[in-house]
Amino acid sequence: MTNGSGIPPLSAGEKLARFITVERWVRADQTLRQDAFIPPKDLNFSVTRHLNSSEGQLWKIGQKVADAIAAKRNASLYGRADITVGRVLGLHLKTTAAPLHENPGHAQITGWPPDKPAQKSIAQQLAAIARYIPLPIVGHSDG
């Protein structure tokens, strides 16, 4: 079943990617800081669904996201944080498909509490359970 756009609804086992566009969001040991998961003022936290995307397709989307952010402030693509919908739902948040023309897999994490300390607590939990995947270095070979 789809939502009319041909994109299926989110399922608990589905992976979401949070593109990491600020270097300080990643610690030296490759774990994530809570800042990578602090929601914006409108409490609509953007992520991208993996859907049937290849690794290359996901990184291309991530680069587009970083380029769009860079138009407003300094940003580069450093990697991504992968987390499943089920883990997000387990923190009493919601996930909603929010396809964009340039990113059909765009989704939002919503249902954030209004107070900053509670948002910070949830962001810490998301950072602790997300898997950080650094941007692959392209153009190098082993031979």
Description:
The protein has 143 residues and is of the alpha+beta class. The protein has one domain (15-134). It is built from 3 helices and 6 strands; from the N terminus they run ββαβαββαβ. It is globular. The mean pLDDT is 91.
What distance lies between the first and last C-alpha atoms, to the nearest angstrom? 47 Å
Helix fraction, binned, reads 10-25%
Beta-strand portion reads: 15-25%
Overall shape: it is globular
Tell me the domain tally.
1
Oligomer state of the chains in this structure: single chain
Arrangement of strands in the largest sheet: 4-5-2-1-3-6
| Run of helices and strands | EEHEHEEHE
Classify the secondary structure makeup into a structural class. alpha+beta
How many DSSP helices? 3
Please compute the radius of gyration using only Cα atoms: 15 Å
Number of strands: 6
Whole-number mean pLDDT: 91
Low-confidence stretches: none
Largest sheet: number of strands, sense, barrel closure: 6 strands, antiparallel
How would you summarize the topology of this molecule?
Blueprint: E1 15-20, E2 45-49, H1 55-70, E3 79-84, H2 85-89, E4 94-97, E5 106-110, H3 116-129, E6 131-134
Antiparallel strand pairs: 1-2, 1-3, 2-5, 3-6, 4-5
